[in-house]
Amino acid sequence: MNYINKCLLFLLVSVSFVSIAQKKGDAKSLFEYQGRIEKIQDDKVVLIGSASSVSFDFKGNSCSISLQSVENHQNYVSLELDGKYIGRVRIEKGDVKSFPITVSNDNKTHHLSIYKATEAANGGVLFAGTSAKLVESATSKKKKKIELIGDSITCGFGNDASTIPCGSGEWYDQHNAYWAYGPILSRSLNIDFVLSSVSGYGMYRNWNDEHLDEAIIPDVYENLYLNRDNSKPYDFAFQPDLVSICLGTNDLSDGDGKKTRLPFNEEKYVSNYIAFIKTVYKHAPNTRIVLLTSPMVSGEKNVTLVKCLKKVILTFESDKKHKPIALFEFKSMSPKGCGYHPDIADDKVMAEQLIPFFKKILNEK
């Protein structure tokens, strides 16, 4: 049974686990969704991409949420209550389960956000309802929007070893996209965001594959689930004011040292990057694009990366239809997360570097 069929089956099971407002049929306006998600029915939703989320306001001190990992393994979400991070929750494989949320003993209105901590490659997380007494959210001011395209660094891979140490469990047990650099800076700037990122993927090849057996970001970007399945295209309804692209770490990687690895091909990297930017413009013609270097690339490799990115930018220099493409260079770091990836502290450093740069661009007329 595939995961969507499983979702539909368990939706029937969870009919009783809805709020009074949902039963009245007016819950459509009471849930807010962000990121790459798939709506099923009755405001049930599959969270797909890293940091994709569902949020709602509720009144009182009683709240439970119904979640399911729709793959045959555990998954994770991160929770934010009233603007404060309250932890990462492990969702074991199996049926829909209820997770209680501890709320202060008052009759105030609260805001809960549920973020997918893992990435698209780890399978979906089904949000199947809440027991809370939902109330309508106050009308929020229209926010600027940003899309962050990237690889494991953008996903938040290996940044949270607070419960399972690095090297233990599965490769996604330390994922926490809530604390990836993109969501951190987005919260700081009070902007809406979507992450379009896949661990291990590059612009023309992957960290250990020469684009022979595995996909690359340009192959999957237009597909909702960020995989080769093009039967469910991404609708691109989210129109970002700024698109950030951080790809190159895996293209420049030496692989695992066992599988054949060819020398880095600057021409392929640059030509693929140019074609990919044209794809981004096709779906978001009014956006401003920023190309990022990698905090995990240094020395001669970083010199090569910067040179290639400048070639890409130069190609679009005479393009009058779109806003100028910018370049941002991270300061190199020695990441302290799992698998030589940034940990949460490193992600905060990356976000702090980007915040003034992105703020200036977003405020430009």
Structure description:
With 365 residues, the protein is of the alpha+beta class. The protein contains eight helices and 16 strands. Helix 4 packs across helix 8 and helix 6 crosses helix 7. The longest helix has 20 residues. About 6% of the residues have low confidence.
Short key terms for the protein model shown above:
365 residues; alpha+beta; six-stranded antiparallel beta sheet; five-stranded antiparallel beta sheet; 8 helices; 16 strands; 24% helix
How many H/I helical runs?
Answer: 8
Categorize the overall geometry. Answer: globular
Cα-atom Rg, whole angstroms? 20 Å
Beta content: 15-25%
Query: What is the first-to-last residue Cα distance?
Result: 51 Å
Main sheet specs: 6 strands, antiparallel
Break the fold down into its secondary structure elements and pairings.
Layout: H1 3-13, H2 20-23, E1 31-34, E2 37-39, E3 45-47, E4 53-59, E5 64-69, E6 75-81, E7 84-91, E8 97-100, E9 109-116, E10 125-130, E11 133-135, E12 145-150, H3 152-155, H4 181-189, E13 192-197, H5 217-220, E14 242-246, H6 266-283, E15 288-292, H7 299-315, E16 326-328, H8 344-363
Parallel strand pairs: 12-13, 12-14, 14-15, 15-16
Antiparallel strand pairs: 1-4, 2-3, 3-10, 4-9, 4-11, 5-8, 5-10, 6-7, 6-9
Helix pairs in contact: 4-8, 6-7
